Amino acid sequence: MNVNSQPDIRSEAIAVDVDRVSKIFGGEPPVTALDDVSVAIRQNEFFTLLGPSGCGKTTLLRLIAGFEPPTSGSLRLGGRDISRLPPNKRPINTVFQNYALFPHMSVAANIAFGLQMLGKPKAEVRDTVDEMLKLVQMEALKNRRTSEISGGQQQRVALARALAPHPEVLLLDEPLSALDYKLRKEMQIELKRLQGETGITFIFVTHDQEEALTMSDRIAVMNAGKILQVGPPREIYNRPVNRFVADFIGETNFLTGTAQGDAVRISSGHMIAVPLDGRTGDVTLTVRPEQVRLCPVDQDGALHAEISDLVYFGTDTHCHLALKDGTQIVARLQSLPTGEVGYMRGQAVGLRFEPGAVQVVGA
Amino acid sequence: MADRAFQVARLPGFNTIAIMVFVMLYLPIGLLVLFSFNAGPSVAIWEGFSLQWYPKAWGNEQVRDATIRSLIIASSAALISTTLATMAALGTTRRKRSPGQTMIYVMINQPLMVPEIVTAVALLIFFASIKVATGYQGLGYLIAAHSAFCIPFAYLPIRARLEGMDLTLETAAADLYATPWQTFRHVTLPLLMPGIIAGMMLAFITSLDDVVISLFVKSAGQETLPTYMLGQIRRNITVEVNAISTLLLGLTVIMLTVFFLLTRKQD
Lengths: 363, 267
Ligand SMILES: Nc1ncnc2c1ncn2[C@@H]1O[C@H](COP(=O)(O)OP(=O)(O)OP(=O)(O)O)[C@@H](O)[C@H]1O
Ligand SMILES: [Mg+2]
Prior knowledge:
The structure holds 2 protein chains of 2 kinds. By secondary structure, chain A is α+β, with helices and mostly antiparallel strands. In chain A, about 25% of the residues lie in helices and about 35% in strands. Chain A has 8 helices and 20 strands. In chain A, strands 6-7-8-3-9-10 form a 6-stranded mixed sheet, with helices on both faces. Chain A has a 5-stranded antiparallel sheet with strand order 13-12-11-14-20. The radius of gyration of chain A is 25 Å and the shape is elongated. Chain B is mainly alpha-helical. Chain B has a domain at about 60-235: MetI-like fold (Orthogonal Bundle). Helix content of chain B is about 75%, strand content about 0%. Chain B has helices spanning about 15-35, 55-60, 60-95, 100-110, 110-115, 115-135, 140-165, 170-175, 180-210, 210-215, 225-235, 240-265. Chain B is globular, with a radius of gyration of 23 Å. The mean pLDDT of chain B is about 85. The interface of A and B includes residues 89 and 104 of A. Chain A: One of its GO terms (molecular function) is ATP binding.
């Protein structure tokens, strides 16, 4: 199953075309790391692979870089089949998760390496290295050993080294996961800036959904070797194609019920109007906590619920609600200046959902 | 830590035994070095300090010949065995563990396990037939024999270094357009260098002080330093031998120090 929720084939050029690629690692038992994956990554796009540990993100990157051959399927770069090309012949560079800087070389020598291997003239190498050092603000440390600089600085050098040969595509395998929170935020902005300035296609791997949402032009959500959904952050967040995507990206509520006409009778007996796209029988609905509103019990169309808990999170407060049949729903309420939200535990309230907020995510 | 773990150092008599072992190990060597500076001709009766035995030893043409021969053999053997050991290490660590792997290690390390005298006799017989067939009498036999038994000494530090190496560095080089050869030349080899130098020095020292195999393999007149010293001592014990030994000891200590510095520094 390959739900590509991107039917609008825009005229934008495709940089990397992954066509029905599978990767099976031999061994006992064999591991299917990628299962018939197809995805088209556009030129100059910040494309993110997002998914839980072991879902095949690194494997897909390694296949694109050429470190592993696909078991089946093909890879194209700008229309050219690169499936059988060794990594040193692909105009694609990688920022490794552990950076993999050459410990026996200086910062500048690391950055120069790719250009030298390409046989660029000395003057050009020197100029590009200087330019890259400036780009990542590492000019002062250019003669240091890579073992003598901090983690964040190593990260910048790894980035500069991969950008220096000006590849068509840059692959980044969780490049920020080793950094502390503050540095991570800084580097997120920095990466976006670099991508804009260089115009290189970035394929970025993360398992941090917030990072994916803030940085990406488009996100591919993966699980168990498959791509479940591809789309811009807003679409992935607001229109998840299935329960896994809804659950993996952000927090959400699930409601089970039965389709009846153009509405769903949920387990508590309430009717909820929702576009069903012709679905019948049992369905699962999802609604984000920030789309749940509290209202007076007697308001028209309100669901009746009781507040079972209030959890303070600073800017907002999570209000845990129980419907008549015990179904739990979380609403995210903005905290008042006093830190309260104006409700109490045990209080009977009405609740309603913002129009269009409830989605069907499967049976 | 409520109950202490078993510690050998706390057994009664441990200190006495330890001190005795150190005395046995280092006292004879200390005396040998001391008497190399003896003014008199005895290796047992101290007659005052003098450096006379060093120039005397060097003035002895046989000593000089043997020294030069030993250095030629040791350098050649170190070079050859390290090259072979590097290739063997690359061949054995850069692949998945296979059932035959242990067998390969055993075969590479054969000289460490087979009694040296057996190897020596085997080489003697083997080379004898070659000598008869070809008539060649040169140093080649000694160099070949030394190269062979030095391989495991060169192999072990190189393999240790390779096993500690981050393989993603080579992947990164390939990613940055390096061909397999360029990757080896610019990444693998420089990172391996401390191991290679360490291995080469171990091989050099091992070759330099070998007696058994040299005795069996050498042709007439091909004394190495150790075989010459052995021959001398059989006739009469002179302070000259103490002086040569002291110099050899000095060389070995320097090389071992460099070896430890190289293998300790892990970057
Ligand atoms: N060389 C290999 N041999 C055998 N199995 C492998 C190999 N590399 C990866 N796998 C398996 O393939 C699956 C996908 O691995 P992959 O490294 O792509 O996951 P990932 O999405 O990058 O996970 P993480 O977020 O933990 O890095 C895993 O089940 C993994 O165990
Ligand atoms: Mg990974």
